[in-house]
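To close the chapter, one final illustration. This time we ask the reader to focus less on the individual chains and more on the assembly as a whole: which components sit near each other, and how the overall shape emerges from the parts.
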Amino acid sequence: MPAVSRLDEARHEIRRVILSFLEGAGFTGLDEVVRLEVPTEKGHGDLTTSFALKAAGRTKVPPRVLLEQLLSWWPDVPAVESLEVAGPGFLNFTLRTRWLAEVVNQVRAMPGQYGNSDFGQQQRVLLEYVSANPTGPMVVVSGRAAAVGDTLARCMSAAGYQVFREFYVNDAGNQIATLGHALALRLRELEGEDVESNWPEKVYPGDYVKDLAKAYRTLHPEFATDQAVEDRYPELGAWAAERIRQSQETVLREFGVTFDQWFSERSLRESGAAEAVIDRLRNRGYMAEREGALWFTSTRFGDDKDRVMVKSDGSYTYFVPDAAYHAGKFDRGFDYVIDLLGPDHHGYVNRMRAVVEALGYPPERLEILIVQLVRLLRGRELVRMSKRGGDFVALEDLIEEAGVDPARFFLLERAPETPMDFDLNLATLKGSDNPVYYVQYAGARIHSILRQWHAMAAETVPVDLGLLTSAEERELMVLMARFPEVVVRVAEDRAPQHLPKYLTDLAAAFHAFYRAHRILDVEPGLRQARLALIEAVLAVNTRGLALLGISQPEEM
RNA sequence: GCGCCCGUAGCUCAGUGGAUAGAGCGCCUGACUACGAAUCAGGAGGCCUGAGGUUCAAAUCCUCACGGGCGCACCA
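The assembled structure is written out below.
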């Protein structure tokens, strides 16, 4: 694996030297143990390793003794300023500041691409996320899945994966007829009929269907209300579903989230893929007929119960098209298939794995992430979200109230699998209480300085990065050198929360630097070097925010 | 009852088997005649739910208990 960053270059170099030392000392097979990590504590160097502790059992040499030998043997390594033995057997490395400073040039050479790497080796990944039913407005948990999926896609692309983004549209089945039923009732209501007092149990009562009814009436003036009968429900529902899907697309685009494909369940059914997947399972011997229904024997693959695929009335359960859809994903040649599912799909994971395995695909290539619930609060008060009642907060309400940037930052700050509370009061705050502005403000400050620099029309001199020697400048270099591997970590661990954390650290380091040092009114050489430094910081900040789908304003 | 997720500062949450467990908010004390104070410097605040176990080393891995959330349809 080639180095992904300046820091990673140092890591590779140091590791190579340590391994050759160990080999010379007669210790082999320790490759696994020699890992260089970014220490959690300040004062433990730029990189640290505990291989001596980990290998003590095999080397039979006390860790500190081994490290002292290594220390006296250590050759000159360009990246390394110094190394020291610490604690029970840690080895801490301090990197040469001048060597680190090259990161400034690296960033400035490709400001919009810095952070990219070939870690993923162009493996093809299908990422499915959101996939909200087209039967009503999206709620906030869909927004969380959208933000998480989108940022994972952006980071995985940056980390060298080929990512294909897909939204699965459940535009078939009973729920579409139910939606059609709701639309039919609202159409009757437009004619003055009282439908509310006798509203059927399972039909969506939300007001949004009233708007759909008005739109339908305008587009189809010839439609007579007495046509709003049961055998028209599927057709009416299909119309409404497509209409809702389009509004989902609009809201998501506003939220900065797009898809390469909106995959229609109906098209899947029409293509015969459902029958095909049942045949495949039958041929492989994983289908059983019981009680008049056709069951997939998923218990043979660790599921807790078998699953009905064809009901006794001959119709399919929703599981059939889903199985066909997933089979199709693998048939399309993806190396990895990742699903982001909502918390109500817990029970779904085992059967999906089972069907993938039963169809002969490697089950470890299907990865299912559960994006957990979002509880909306206003201060202490819980805001209820329910598609049934009219009092839910839709994603578009959230965007309007909080704004895209704060909403995305909040949703991405926490690990996706952790249930979270989203305080609307906090996200709505425009001031310093809102962490997203802290990060954006760092960039806006740099923009402001650069504007003044351009207005000065002062003398430009060649950049000498060797002039950057202060602790604050060095901290910025170290952080920038880490950026590409933060992106890799987000991609690899499917953990977007590392990025907001990193950007907060970077902004803090910049603000501290800004307070401690002047930039424009110092001598020209140092000024030029610091300008180069903050230009690089701005580039990294902007790119980091872009990976989160958040803007970097030039002024605030 | 079974399965999955989660218990970390007053609140919301980070934390890659490592060293003295971190951040933001809230609270307290300081800092602009200086490139943007939406900032900075510092302080208080912890039995990492509990009990065992593995390990040189556990918030992290394993087991059990307790507490919270969500799933467990011939619904989608």
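The longest helix of chain A spans residues 524-547. Residues 6-95 of chain A form a domain with the Gyrase A; domain 2 fold (CATH 3.30.1360.70). With these observations in hand, you are ready for the problems at the end of the chapter.
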